[in-house]
Amino acid sequence: MTLDDLPEFLSFARDGLMQIFDKIYYSHRVGLRKPGSEVFQLILDQNSLDPAKTLFIDDSPQHIEGAKALGIQTIFLAPGMTIEDDIFKPKN
Fold first, then answer.
1. Whole-angstrom distance, CA of residue 76 vs CA of residue 4
2. Bond preceding residue 35 cis, omega within 30 of 0
3. How many CB atoms lie within 10 A of CB 12?
């Protein structure tokens, strides 16, 4: 999981979503920036992840393309969508 800012982190923590992640990566802390594929490759390598079984969610089409270039599964979070309501909540 990558988060770029404190408000996003606090939102995840408040909503109890942190428990589903093993590790959090901040692209600016590892010295690599999205949309470059290097940050995604670092995460894949450090965690022995199969890109085809890895999911990246972002609200930037450019960042989505960087992940897709490595074969990572992606979800574009369009304006007005939220991870909590549109991605993680079961649909009735």
1. 16
2. yes
3. 19
Domain ranges of the chain: 6-88
Average pLDDT, integer, range 78-87? 74
Residue 51: both structure tokens together: 């890109």
Would you say domain 6-88 falls under CATH 3.40.50.2300? Answer: no
DSSP string, 23-83: --B-TTTTT--TTSHHHHHHHHHHTT--GGG-EEEES-HHHHHHHHTTT-EEEE--TT--I
Is the pLDDT at 38 greater than 60? The verdict is: yes
